[in-house]
Design a protein that fits this description.
With 158 residues, the chain is of the alpha+beta class. The protein has a domain at 48-152: Roll (SH3 type barrels). The chain is 23% helix and 22% strand. A 6-stranded mixed sheet has the order 4-3-2-1-6-5. The longest helix is centred in the N-terminal third of the chain and has 19 residues, at 2-20. The chain is elongated, with a radius of gyration of 27 Å.
Length: 158
């Protein structure tokens, strides 16, 4: 009697975890909601992720790198008021932050053309597999200014 009771307890202990692991099938789509709605909302044209704009290289119209976007300034209503661009310096030493109005920046989706770089951006290497991600951020920004003009601007203090 004891052995029968003991074997039934051991069997239930071994079988119960296996039975608990079975999951019901996941529905593939919700009724009354088209499946393409979520994808269409996620890939709206002209919408960029703010997290992808930080670190974006800024060039002038002669394709000289001026600096990179270090921060975005947003007012209480959520409107972006300006970008903080780090200019000058080398490896983070001697860099000066300046505020640039967003209307002065022009965002470009293709890599800048320079003598040393004709195939991709120094900011983001060309990756054909991730080409669908490109619609979430531009390749770089263009600012109509020279390095000297930006260095002469007042430094932005946080």
């Amino acid at each position: 009697m004891r052995s029968i009771l003991l074997s039934s307890v051991v069997a239930s202990v071994l079988i119960f975890p296996a039975a608990a692991q079975s999951n019901p099938p996941v529905p593939t789509s919700r009724p009354n909601q088209p499946a393409a709605t979520t994808t269409a909302q996620a890939t709206q044209a002209g919408v960029w992720r703010a997290s992808k704009l930080k670190g974006l290289n800024v060039y002038n119209q002669q394709n000289e790198k001026l600096g990179e976007i270090n921060e975005l300034l947003v007012d209480k209503s959520g409107k972006v008021q300006g970008a903080i661009v780090g200019v000058g310096g080398f490896l983070g030493m001697g860099e000066q932050d300046i505020k640039v109005e967003m209307s002065k920046l022009r965002f470009v989706d293709e890599p800048p053309r320079t003598a040393s770089n004709t195939t991709g951006s120094p900011n983001r290497p060309v990756d054909r597999a991730a080409s669908t991600d490109r619609r979430w951020y531009p390749d770089h920004a263009v600012l109509n200014a020279t390095k000297e003009q930006l260095k002469a601007m007042p430094q932005f203090k946080y």
